[in-house]
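Key result, reporting period 2: structure in, sequence out.
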């Protein structure tokens, strides 16, 4: 099982290079736009695109998934609720020599068509109300609501309108959310294929509020475990197709 650790502390407007499978992607970092995390990078390494496919990246952030798809020859659309995120995705696409069409708005941002592939790395963690987050990380970038999966469940409900019979929807499931509820929602609407499972070192906001998260673990809501005196969570990648 691969292990991924994150370091979100980056100098804003620094350009960082990310090696994702056979591709190296240069991404400028800007204040207020989520930079790729260990969670997001693991997801990127375990989704697949083919040349000529139409792809939409929902919640594009700084654009890593959109650019990865474009580098593989896909025709890519990227959306984000934040205008500074879509602007940065556009700039980063140009930096990497690819074309990505961007739209600002929630989820599919008013697009009215189907796509061959949908990818969505949405906020998906239960964040303690008093948690202090890592530098440059805004709560809205990772907090998925009371159960940690509010936006992911909304995506599961919306996505079929943008899928055809052979479309693929890729999602990461983070076990610092009510991932079992997410899976139940997914199985109700889709055929589900497991792609991969990785592990992530628990972030400081978890270990700083460990009793709260151990209570959620005891209730069966999250998965959190200790090994070699460190706390870990899992990230699963699933592929969904219409029934």
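The corresponding designed sequence is given below.
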């Amino acid at each position: 099982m691969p292990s991924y650790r994150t370091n979100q502390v980056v100098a804003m407007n620094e350009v960082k290079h990310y090696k994702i499978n056979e591709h190296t992607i240069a991404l400028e970092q800007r204040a207020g736009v989520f930079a790729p995390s260990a969670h997001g990078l693991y997801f990127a390494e375990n989704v697949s695109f083919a040349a000529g496919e139409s792809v939409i990246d929902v919640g594009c952030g700084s654009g890593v998934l959109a650019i990865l798809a474009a580098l593989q020859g896909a025709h890519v659309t990227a959306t984000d609720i934040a205008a500074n995120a879509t602007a940065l995705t556009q700039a980063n696409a140009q930096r990497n020599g690819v074309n990505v069409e961007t739209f600002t708005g929630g989820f599919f941002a008013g697009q009215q068509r189907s796509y061959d592939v949908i990818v969505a790395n949405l906020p998906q963690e239960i964040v303690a109300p008093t948690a202090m987050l890592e530098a440059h990380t805004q709560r809205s970038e990772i907090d998925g609501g009371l159960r940690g999966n509010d936006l992911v469940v909304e995506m599961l409900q919306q996505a079929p309108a943008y899928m055809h019979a052979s479309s693929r929807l890729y999602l990461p499931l983070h076990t610092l959310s009510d991932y079992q509820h997410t899976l139940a929602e997914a199985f109700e609407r889709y055929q589900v294929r497991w792609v991969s499972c990785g592990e992530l070192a628990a972030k400081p906001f978890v270990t700083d509020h460990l009793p709260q998260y151990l209570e959620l673990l005891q209730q069966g809501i999250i998965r959190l475990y200790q090994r070699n005196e460190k706390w870990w969570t899992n990230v699963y990648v699933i592929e969904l197709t219409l029934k």
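The helical segments are 38-44, 64-71, 83-95, 139-142, 150-158, 179-189, 204-207, 210-218. The first strand starts at residue 3 and ends at 4. This case is discussed further under Risks and Mitigation.
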